[in-house]
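Record filed here:
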Amino acid sequence: MEGGVELGFAAAAAPEDAWRLRSAYFPSKVGGRPAWLGEDGLPGPGALRCARCQQPRAFLLQLYAPLPGRRDTFHRSLFVFACRGAACYSLPGPGGPLCVFRSQLPRRNRFYPEEPPPEEPPPGPLAPPARLLSGARLCRVCGCLGPSACGRCRRAAYCGPEHQALDWRRGHRRTCGQAGDADDSENAIPGDDRFLFPEYEILIEPEEPEFPADSSVDPDDDKGAAGTSKEAEEQEELRVSSSTGEACQSLDEETLEAMAKHETEEDKVFQMFKERIAAEPEQIIRYCRGGEGPIWVSRENIPKEQDIPNCICGAKRVFEFQIMPQLLNHLQVDSLGESIDWGTLVVYTCAETCGDGNEYVEEFIWKQDFSAGSIELPSSS
């Protein structure tokens, strides 16, 4: 996944194809439980709690992104987790309800064969593992590390008390201690549970070349290569001025012009965003490690270089991929009358892609929101 921009699309996997979303097949996917790559050094429950509400984050998506030309990145995946609490998304910027981890392995490792997996389903059912090769247990609800256990049967594993209580209410109270119950993580939580996001396969395709990387426009350019003509800008300025009404009569001319210019520049940035994705409006991922940067939905809250911390190894981080707002259409997050939300999520990773496969390395994610005046993108459904 290196070179030009590559786009990711959510594709519903038929039940008979669910095997492709398991660890042994190195998937890129949305929702469900994570298909862990390396089985050493998984992030613990504390690392996966929301920095704002302290509730467990849910697995959002993972991308399989090996880097060619390096022995230690023959296998490489990035894992993103997101809080389910809508209130935690009220502030833009880094961290908070979101986190991202990286795992990588050489071709020769103790978890997977050196040869690619077969392009055919394995014999028999393939349920998510309840235990890793190391012996560590996985939470029956979310599939993350489960260091806690049911106090009654001592067999069912959980990441913390929240998921233990959820599992108890959803059925473990009836099956606790029964043979096979603690190891059947696939059936631990009914399919309508709202903690796990719906599961999709991510299909990767190259972006078509008719959208060149040098087509972006300086928002200060009066001609507006985003499609905004001088006449349209003047009309926008009139709209902004008239909409302020009597409340603006006390403002001086310089202030009014600055307000109009700000609105016009904001419209340009969002217009460029919409035009760039117009050919493939259902894209949920844009991937281009170290190459073309992200496309922004607003001129506000764009991180500066100093806003992106260096990796723990000391190397700078580079842009790797961004998560598009269209993903929200697939997550079923409006059912309770409130929704998690973002304009775009941008992931930066270690330029040296450090690590030896014995741990998951936390990387950096930045949330940018739509501006107050932006028009939300239409649903892809």
Observations:
- The two ends are 28 Å apart (CA to CA).
- The first strand starts at residue 6 and ends at 11.
- The chain has a mean pLDDT of 82.
- DSSP finds three helices and 14 strands in the chain.
